[in-house]
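Appendix B. Raw example, untouched.
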Amino acid sequence: MATLPARLLIIDDDVAACDAISATLTSRGFEVVSANSGAAALELLEREEVDAVITDLHMPGMTGIELCQRAHKSWPDLPIVLVTAFGSMETVVAAIRAGAYDFIAKPIQMQELLLTLTRALEHRKLKEENKQLRDTVARHRPPGDMIGDSPAMHEVYSLLGRVVDTDATVLITGESGTGKELVAQAIHQRGPQSAGPLVAFNCAAVPDTMLESELFGHARGAFTDAKTNHKGLFLQANGGTLFLDEIGEMPLTTQVKLLRALQERKVRPVGGDREVPFDARIVSATSRDLETDVAEQRFREDLYYRINVIRIHMPPLRARGRDVLLIAEHFVARFAQQFKKPLTGIADDAAEKLLAYPWPGNVRELQNCMERAVALSQGETIALADLPVHVREFQGNTFVLPLENPLELLPMEEVEKRYVLQVLQAVSGSKTQAATALGFDRRTLYRKLKAYGVV
C-alpha cells in the first residue's frame, strides 16, 4: 500500500461532479484516477492499484452498493466510501453490509471527506500490518510452538537445529516465563527420542522428602505409604526424554544421587536392592544463576558440568524487540477464537505500549495480558483501554540530575552503585548476566555487591 499522499479512485456518473472532487483532492496532495460507471471502475481496479475508493451511490447500470459488493469480494481490504444525496438508515445498513467502510451525504463537506479518507487509509494500513504480523507468525513457528523473528531467537533456533539429532544432555536457562519448556518440547519432538514419551517434572513442585521417590521410584514397603512398587520418572521416560524443570531448586542430598544416575545411566529405587538401567535423554532447565549457586556451594559443581553439556539460553521478552507484537498477535488470535470475538489485531497505540513495557513476567505475563484484553475488548481490534493499567501507563525509567542544587549532585561511586543495582534487578538477580552486561568479571561484581551490603 502507498503511503500518504495515497492513490484514490473517484466514481460518479456525473462527469462534472467527478472532476470537481478529483481536482479538490489532487490539490490536497492525493493522486486521483476516476471512472464514470461501476463497470469501468471494476475494469480499472483489475489493472491498477488504489488505496481507497469514493463512489456515488445512485448510478445507472450498477449502483454504488452493487459495486461495493463486487469490489469487496475481490479486494476485501480496499476501503470504499459511499456518497449519496438520498441518505437513510436503511441505505447506510445496506452499504455497510455490502462492505463499505463509511458513508457520507451530499453536498460533500471537504473536511468530512478528508477525515473519513484519513480514517479509511489508517484502517487499511492497520489491517495490512496485522496481516503481515500473522504471516510472520505463521512463518516463524519452527521449531515447535516457539514464535519469534529477533536475532536472539534465531540464535536459539540455530543451536536447536544442531543439538536435536544428538542425545547430549541439555541445560536450558532463562528467566521465569521465557518459554524454556517449549525448547524442551522442541528438542524431544525433533530428536531421535520423539517416538518415546516426554516426561516433564518440576523439581520445585514436590517436597524434598518425596523427590527421590518421584525421580528414582520406590520398592514396596520402602516407607509407610509405599503399598506397591513405583516406577520413577527416569524409568517412565525410557526411550524418550526426561525434562527436569527448575533443577536449581533440587536439594544437595538429591543432587548427589542424580549425579550418580546420570553417570551410570542407572537408578536405584528407594528401598530397592538393585540398580535398574534407563535409556532417556536428559534435558534440564532453571531460572536460577547456577554459576553463582556453584560458587556459593548451593549447587554441586560436578552435577552442573554434567547437565550443562549443551546450554541454550532463552532471552527475556524485553530483549526480543518486535517479537512482543508477534507473540501478542498469536495470543489475540487464540483467545479471539476461544471467546468467539471477531478481532482482527491490535490498535497502533496499544501496540506501542506493548513494545514499551519491559515484561518482567516475560511471555507468561504477555499471555495473561492478552487474554484479559481479548475478554474485555468491544471493538474489532485490541484498544489501549483493553490493556491493564500498569501496561498502558508504564513510563520508562530515566536518570534525572537535580540541577537546581549543585550540592545534591551524586558522586560517581553512588551513580555506579545505583546503576549496578538497577542492572542486577533488570536481569532478575542473575550475577552472571549482570557481570556480562556491566563488563565485570564475577569476582569484581561480587566484591562490589558485598561493599554495597547486598550479599
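End of appendix B.
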